[in-house]
Design the sequence.
């Protein structure tokens, strides 16, 4: 029981380390969190972010409750399948396999990078419910933008410390994530 408890505590320390010092976490600790657990972080992060979006749109009368539920389900899909696809794309482009980084490692790193977005999403949801504010832009997008820092460190590690490549690919990943969120408004949500 003590070994299991120590392992769980170590996983939580790794997740918190990803917020404060993503470079060190990527280099040393990420093998401690299996990718399915890591996807829970990114999945919940985007679920809550998209819930904020749905609440904001519902509050101004643009959508009904059934659309809010649909947006939440899209957020869950986006935070799991979308993050997984971005991790795989980045892994391939960075030629991480040649540096002996597994796809599991890349998915875990990408997903845990959204720990910051999860914290912002929780705070945004609280402000939305308590103060009746529209919070998707202020909290949701800010959280996703802060999550780009761990993404950049992950890509940098996978690419063999190629800084310029890491910046460009991180920018593309961030643009893809925000563009997908922006599509909600374009398709009548």
Sequence:
């Amino acid at each position: 029981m003590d070994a299991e408890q120590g392992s769980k505590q170590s996983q939580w320390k790794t997740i918190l380390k990803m917020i404060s010092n993503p470079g060190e976490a990527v280099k040393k600790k990420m093998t401690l969190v299996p990718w399915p657990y890591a996807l829970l972080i990114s999945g919940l992060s985007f679920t809550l972010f998209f819930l904020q979006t749905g609440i904001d749109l519902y509050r101004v009368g643009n959508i009904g409750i059934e659309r809010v539920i649909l947006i939440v389900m899209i957020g869950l899909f986006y935070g799991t399948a979308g993050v997984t696809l971005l991790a795989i794309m980045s892994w391939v482009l960075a030629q991480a396999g040649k540096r002996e980084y597994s796809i599991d490692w890349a998915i875990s790193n990408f997903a845990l990078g959204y720990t910051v977005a999860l914290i912002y999403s929780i705070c945004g949801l609280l402000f939305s419910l308590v103060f009746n504010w529209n919070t998707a832009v202020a909290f949701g997008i800010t959280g996703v933008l802060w999550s780009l820092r761990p993404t950049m460190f992950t890509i940098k590690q996978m690419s063999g410390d190629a800084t310029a490549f890491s910046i460009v690919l991180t920018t593309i990943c961030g643009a893809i994530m925000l563009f997908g969120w922006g599509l909600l408004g374009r398709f009548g949500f």
Notes: The chain has a mean pLDDT of 87. The two ends are 48 Å apart (CA to CA). The chain has one domain: 40-186.
